């Protein structure tokens, strides 16, 4: 059984009269659709919203990226990671909150884009592994290669805006 990483994106928006940009509200910028099953079968406690798989901002991953971002699937190699899972942000948008509470995800974390862009992705970690024939090999986790597509997906969303006003909420499920 594999672990899937689902990424949802929020942008902090501000009122026009908030000149100092101090009272922003996080809002999802994903392409949400109404979940007809949740409307028809409210007893199932499903989210009222969903995103088609093809509309997710990022749907890749790989266990090295899971480990780097949130110490997930990191039991064998024990590579250094950005942070333990933080759970849902307190001020998360309603659609994302419902998706986590009504979905199949078992772990959730989040990062501002700023936080991810400033992380040292130029690390390489070597570790010992064994082949199926029990031969010792030295393998490498290349952080840049592991996170390249993920970071590109986030960079496409920022345009020339402040990356601290964007965050990705990441859910892991089996």
Secondary structure blueprint with pairings:
Layout: E1 4-13, E2 25-28, E3 33-34, H1 36-40, E4 49-50, H2 63-70, H3 94-102, E5 107-112, H4 113-118, E6 124-130, E7 136-142, H5 143-158, E8 166-173
Would you write up a description of this structure?
By secondary structure, the protein is of the alpha+beta class. The protein has one domain (4-173). Helices cover 25% and strands 26% of the residues. It contains five helices and eight strands. It has helices at 36-40, 63-70, 94-102, 113-118, 143-158, and strands at 4-13, 25-28, 33-34, 49-50, 107-112, 124-130, 136-142, 166-173. It has a four-stranded antiparallel β-sheet. A two-stranded antiparallel sheet has the order 3-4. Strand 6 and strand 7 (136-142) form a beta hairpin. The longest helix has 16 residues, at 143-158. It is globular and about 60 Å long. The mean pLDDT is 90.
Give the number of helices.
Answer: 5
Number of strands: 8
| Alpha-beta classification | alpha+beta
SSE series: EEEHEHHEHEEHE
Query: Strand order across the biggest sheet?
Result: 2-1-8-5
CA radius of gyration is: 18 Å
Uncertain regions spanning at least 5 consecutive residues: none
What number of domains? 1
Shape by Cα distribution = globular
What percent of residues adopt helix (DSSP H or I)? Answer: 25-40%
Q: Measure the end-to-end span.
A: 7 Å
The proportion of strand residues reads: 25-35%
Largest sheet: 4 strands, antiparallel
Average pLDDT, rounded to a whole number, is 90
